[in-house]
Amino acid sequence: MDERWEERLPESVLDHHRTTYDLIIVGGGIVGASAALEAVRRGASVALVDAGLDGRASPAGAGIISPVALDRHEDRPEWTSVITRCVGHYRQLLADVDELDPDNAGSATFREVGELVVARDDPAELATLGAISARLSTDVGRRAHGVSEPPVELAGTDLHAYWPELRGDLRAIFIKDVGRVDGGRLTERLLAAASRLGCQSSGSPAFRIIPGWASLDPAADRPIVQVGSERLSAPAVLLATGAWAGSALDAMGLDGQIRPVRGQIVHLRLPGAAAGGRPVVNTLGAGYLLGFDDRIVVGATHEDAGFDASVTAEGQHRVLAAALDLAPGLGTATLLQTRVGLRPVSRDGLPSVGAVAAGIHVATGLGAMINKYHVSPTLQQTTDTDPEAMLTSGKVAMRYCGSWEPEEIAAVPYGKANIDIAPLPTGPAGNRDFYSNGLANVIAAKTKHPQQAWEFVQFLGSKRAAEIQATTGTVIPAYKGEATAYTKAMPEYDMKVFVDQLQYAEPFPSSLQTATWRDYATQQFANAWTGKSTVADVAHEVAARMNKDLAAEKP
Fold this sequence. Notes:
Layout: E1 23-26, H1 30-41, E2 46-50, H2 57-60, E3 64-65, H3 77-100, E4 110-112, E5 115-119, H4 123-136, H5 139-145, E6 152-155, H6 156-160, E7 171-175, E8 179-181, H7 183-199, E9 207-211, E10 214-216, E11 224-227, E12 230-233, E13 236-239, H8 245-251, E14 258-269, E15 280-282, E16 288-292, E17 295-299, H9 313-326, E18 334-346, E19 352-357, E20 360-364, H10 367-371, H11 379-384, H12 387-392, H13 406-410, H14 413-418, E21 434-436, H15 450-460, H16 463-471, H17 483-487, H18 496-500, E22 505-507, H19 514-529, H20 535-553
Parallel strand pairs: 1-2, 1-13, 2-9, 5-15, 13-20, 21-22
Antiparallel strand pairs: 3-8, 4-8, 5-7, 6-7, 10-11, 11-12, 14-17, 14-18, 15-16, 16-17, 19-20
């Protein structure tokens, strides 16, 4: 699987004489290889060009083939239609490959093993698991997703019968009709089948593989592909270069359509574990497990790292920490390797397939089919990273911030040059409701200088201190008439936005539980950001917790 595929193909497939074809395919992953096989089957002459770059997604990917996505965008008909048809196509594709490549028929390229969707003992996760189960429990839902049987609920020993390494507090549903594929092996078999079929044509082979970097000639009046010193022509060119398709699209004026998202996937060996027939284990946001005959695969990171296909200590740690939290029994496993694949992710989170110019077609963006809504930073990234750092590094486009933060944002060159302040959006009633709170000036109880500390605290509450805070843009002062100085403190920003919105402010309750509320709200709103709950439901839940604590504090 780690060998170069062209080293095992017939010499005739590597013919270097023909330069005109019916179709030129750029990219030798699963998409390019399957397109080549289909085109050759239809009688077309095909040249496939592949640069063999590090970070190719097909040989690195875990290979989960599931018709059921685990997020709130599942109801998008354009998504459901594509994914269901793709999963259904696998069986026919593999039957065709077995017929054309009989020497390897029945090999462990693809195996239907089913899927366990697991949830921790968490109300939000259990609710999401229940929603998925309900969706697949109806005839209509199963037909929409290509699932043949209702899901089966599992817990305890029933769940451990499939994966004994899993933690004990998980609940799960088992979904049939889910498989796993060895992407590298499938690519090899597709190319071998295409080459066998191409060699059966009369005259020169109808299928040729050309190792090298391909570029389109923008000055040509027809599709011309340059590979080293060789110029290839065809009435149609298919760009199936995965994450690298973005550069070709950028050159055609279609900027930013595809970008790479790095995935680090860890391979383990657990002595005595026969994992080849185990179902895929998928979580509601904390990674996955799947078994092959000789290994267990756990993943994966979703990183904005450009085209850097390096294995990093942080990436391995993140994957292994999540895996061991999910399945502590993997703690004795041996680390075999970490593979890295660069997923091609499109702007809208859907596969990009179709014509982009005269004779030029693209088929990429399938990173969305692995994790289609990681175009933005992952939940783990946003919760583990300071929100201001995410904004000032350009990782997120906007965030809710307080009147005390512009000074810190402006201290970062990117923030000063690219970020501005805008009012909150209006709600259904036309308001921009938010909460406000004052500043508490406190003294350390065990200070050695109580008199001086008390005098300093008194100064912090004075009008002079408010003037200093206003003119430096530190915070909106409480003294009337001082807000104007605050709005002028940082002319690069529209600071008046904060002052204008005070009319909508709701005072934040004073309580000993303020810090607890903040942490609780952060945890609960993560369920809204990932679609497990609505913002309104989470807001009501947080408010109920606050009201309960306030009632308990009353004398």
